[in-house]
Design a protein that fits this description.
The protein has 12 helices and no strands. It is mostly helical. The chain is globular.
Length: about 270
């Protein structure tokens, strides 16, 4: 059991290594579920449960101020505890989603303030032009920000499904209700803040076109994306090329007048 707990910790460490590996998407549920199943000797169910978690969290992308639930902890613990209990992917989802939400709250309350310490150190390192210290503090700060998840994942796995289920069921109702309401409001807030940064008179009309196509045209987001790609092609052909030709004509006219000269041309 200790060996498996250590391997689960390594899987979590890999998932939380985005500050070291960059945006490699290894923290996605599909990868985390596969690695969890691999270390527990049940690769097939790990992939199946990871795929189920991926479908549930496919829209979990940080946009604006919205921070999605912690996919790493939710996927690893949901998959691991379900495999241990010989359960299906539905059980993995039932355990994984609330775990991901709780770990996100702990990382926001504990991990991020600790991470700020290293952010200020990086500011000082930048003033001193110490690139090695910048890289070191960035990597360490990334792991420190995920400290709650790095502690909770192996600990919860070691004590097992019953302890985790008991903890979740004994949580006060106002906490679970508050997290449910917040998880519904935060995506809207994130999109609103993002729209505030990028919205202007030129792009607003396209935003509302896409919205009405989905709301009243029963068109999927993939269909809207394909339709948008066609609009871009048409705009490039009929607008950008025309502007390019106009620029060429203006340039050639300027060149001709410069060659001919005028009354103020002394040379």
């Amino acid at each position: 059991m200790i060996l498996k707990t250590f391997l689960i910790f390594l899987v979590a460490l890999i998932g939380y290594s985005d500050a070291f590996t960059g945006t490699s998407l290894i923290q996605r549920p599909l990868v985390m579920g596969m690695l969890t199943g691999l270390v527990l000797g049940d690769l097939k169910n790990g992939i199946i449960m990871g795929g189920a978690m991926e479908l549930a969290m496919v829209g979990s992308v940080s946009i604006g101020a919205y921070i999605p639930p912690d996919m790493v902890s939710g996927t690893i613990l949901g998959t691991a505890l379900a495999i241990q209990a010989h359960a299906n992917s539905a059980a993995a989802l039932t355990l994984g989603i609330p775990i991901a939400t709780i770990v996100l709250a702990l990382e926001t309350a504990i991990g991020q303030p600790l991470k700020l310490i290293f952010v200020h150190r990086i500011d000082k390192n930048a003033q001193d032009a110490n690139t090695r210290a910048i890289a070191r503090n960035m990597i360490i700060g990334g792991y420190v920000g995920k400290l709650p998840g790095l502690i909770i994942v192996p600990t919860a796995f070691y004590f097992g499904q019953s302890a985790v289920t008991t903890l979740l069921s004994n949580m006060p109702k106002f906490i679970t209700t508050g997290m449910t309401i917040a998880s519904g409001l935060l995506p809207a807030l994130g999109f609103a803040m993002l729209a505030q940064m990028i919205m202007n008179k030129k792009v607003a009309v396209f935003f509302f076109i896409g919205f009405f196509m989905v709301a009243y045209g029963n068109l999927s987001t993939t269909g809207v994306a394909l339709f948008a790609a066609l609009i871009i092609i048409v705009m490039y052909i009929f607008i950008e090329k025309r502007n390019g030709n106009s620029t060429k004509v203006a340039t050639s006219s300027t060149t001709s007048s410069e060659e001919q000269g005028d009354g103020f041309d002394e040379f």
